[in-house]
UniProtKB/TrEMBL annotation:
Keywords: Cell membrane, Membrane, Transmembrane, Transmembrane helix, Transport. Coiled coil: none annotated. It comes from Enterococcus haemoperoxidus ATCC BAA-382. GO terms for cellular component: plasma membrane. GO terms for molecular function: transmembrane transporter activity. The chain crosses the membrane at residues 27-47, 59-79, 85-105. This is SMR family multidrug resistance protein. It comes from the Bacteria. Its main location: membrane. It is found in: Cell membrane.
Amino acid sequence: MIGYLYLFIAIISEVIATNLLKATDGFSKLVPSVECLVAYVVCFYSLSKAIKYMPLNVAYALWGAVGIILITIFSVVYWKEQINTPTVIGIGFIVIGTVLVNTFGTGH
């Protein structure tokens, strides 16, 4: 269970870091740049801790899929970016792949 807590922290900090990455304006703004780097350090530290308790393929599939979904939602709501049908379909395939990895993967 502790592995999933670390994974949750990794996902949330990665979503924060990725959104801050946009706010850095190419790392030309100091405060968002430092916050972004700190969030990525937290993210990768937490992910490294998570994979001590769960298989790498499961952790990475969940980290990637949930991160993509949350970042897409945030980019539409906060950054006012457009999303199209192929993007939604692609995210659907990512979700399907993640479910398959978690259901039928040999790590469990």
